[in-house]
Amino acid sequence: MNNSTLVSEPPATEAQVLQYQNDGFLVLRNVFSGAEMAELQAEAAALVERTELIDVNNIRCRWKNNVETDQCSFDCFDPVIDLGPVCARIARDPRIIEAVGALYGETACLFKDKLIFKSPGIEGYALHQDYISWESFPKSFVTVILAIDSASADNGATEVFPGHHKKGNISANDGQYHELPLSAVDISKGVILDLEAGDIAIFSGYTPHRSAANRSKQMRRQLYLSYNSFSDGGEQRDAHYAEFKGWLQNRYADYGKTNTYFR
Predict the structure, then answer these.
(1) Distance (Å, rounded) from C-alpha 257 to C-alpha 55?
(2) What are the boundaries of each domain within the chain?
(3) pLDDT for the residue numbered 1
């Protein structure tokens, strides 16, 4: 691991901003206290019991396969801050807003929010970039991961590939999600984002990343919060989700699934 990129005090200093510009990611330790994380952990535990919401036709829900049973299982609420007041408060917490704003050199605006549970056995994500080439999608898009539980290689922590963000979007500009071939990055340079509860990691929408399956016995819960700079569209979360819901329903319809809804 490149420990030179692992730092300790938000908001980001000039040296940390330079690290982010060079590497495309940054880790900040102990951003949230143990008491704050206990409150978020309790909310996450309550949310995963919201069985009235967890349905394959509800486009708020995301699903992944279990690598041991091949069963398709619930994995994520996207969006989440309208369900959880603690998530909502954290999404706009000054400690995150100011840290991301320091990287921008201007105000950061919330763009997207989701809560990934990653239960034991759930598969990871193939190599990809978060940037999607929609006309409305901000080029300043960054993602913040807040660790609700500790994250490591054993439970499928995110692995980022430094420096490749400087290439910009390396997928087709067709508005679709694309997995990247392993040849797109230097695999030997991958950095596992080992996080403890209360730590955050910030990475560019152009930073290639992936994750492995959760091979542990516990969930690896993380709150994913994405932002854009104020000069790159200002506040646009509501507009994004209106577009995103329509895009998802159209994608499902392409596969003959027309009974989807959002709740």
Answers:
(1) 13
(2) 3-254
(3) 41
Report the C-alpha gap between 50 and 64 in whole angstroms: 18
Containing 22, the helix (H) or strand (E) segment is: helix 14-23
DSSP, collapsed to helix, strand or coil, labels residue 49 as: coil
| Diameter of the chain measured on Cα atoms | 51
CB neighbours of 102 closer than 8 A, spacing ≥ 6? 11, 12, 13, 16, 17
Which residues of the chain are modeled with pLDDT < 70?
Answer: 1-10
List, for residues 86-135, the tens digit of each pLDDT value.
999 999 999 999 999 999 999 999 999 999 999 999 999 999 999 999 99
| Residues contacting 85, CB < 8 A, separation 6+ | 43
CA-derived radius of gyration, the chain: 17
Check if the beta carbon of residue 118 is closer than 8 Å to that of residue 65: no
DSSP 167: G
* Phi-psi map region of 32: left, alpha, beta (phi>0 left; psi -120 to 50 alpha): beta
Collapsing DSSP to helix, strand or coil, 38 comes out as helix
pLDDT, tens only, 1-15: 444 344 445 578 899
Distance (Å, rounded) from C-alpha 33 to C-alpha 35? Answer: 5
Its CATH class, for the domain covering 3-254, is: mainly beta
Amino acid letter at 233? G
Cis ω for the linkage preceding 11 (within 30 of 0): yes
Both tokens of 67, joined, read 């690598």
From residue 250, alpha-carbon distances to 246, 255, 256, 257, 259 in Å are 6, 9, 10, 9, 11
The predicted pLDDT at position 139 comes to: 97
What's the CA angle centered on 86, arms 90 and 96, to 5 degrees?
5
CA dist., res. 163 & res. 21, Å (int): 8
Q: What is the pLDDT of residue 9?
A: 52
